[in-house]
Amino acid sequence: MEVHVGNRIANVELISKDGNKVQIKIDDKEYDIDFIMAENGVCSILTGDGKSYNAELKRSDDGRSYQVNTHFNTYPVEIIDSQAKYLRNRKKDAGAETQDHIASPMPGKVVKILVNEGDKVKAGTSVIVVEAMKMQSDYKVTADCIIKAILVKENDVIDGNQTLIQLMPDPDAKAED
What we know:
The chain is about 10% helix and about 55% strand. It has helices spanning about 80-95, 175, and strands at about 1-5, 10-20, 20-25, 30-35, 40-45, 50-60, 65-70, 75-80, 100-105, 110-115, 120, 125-130, 135-140, 145-150, 155-160, 165-170. The strands form three sheets. It has an eight-stranded antiparallel barrel with strand order 1-2-3-4-5-6-7-8. Strands 9-16-14-11 form a four-stranded antiparallel beta sheet, with no helix packed on it. A four-stranded antiparallel beta sheet has the order 13-12-10-15, with no helix packed on it. It is globular and about 50 Å long.
């Protein structure tokens, strides 16, 4: 399934679950975690390397969206299952709004820029890798587009919600469909 955290799209797969112990794969990287859900949406996460995180999950009425609160930040999270993907693709075919930039929902450091200004990229293409909270995340475009401007360099320290890359629609994309 896809999980959207702000503008970041992650592919998440549950590999195994045994009680509170969960093994998941996020964008081809596996993680062993111990996940305990307490009362009122508060959870405790212990990673395989001994790091501990606490978060509060507030579920929306539709059951697919959450607001995740940590000690210092709040993140909008949307779970995209196969039904939601189907509906989103139908909406896209009907002319849904386009993505005009890539931003990290949290502060971090630019690890790698995978594109150049002027590049034409297809939907789902990773364009930048950012490290935040000791995890690397690759950010993907959601539609065919052209890289209009790259506003950061590798190793730059970035703020949360800072625009990293500006995008513009690919005028040739509709002609190819």
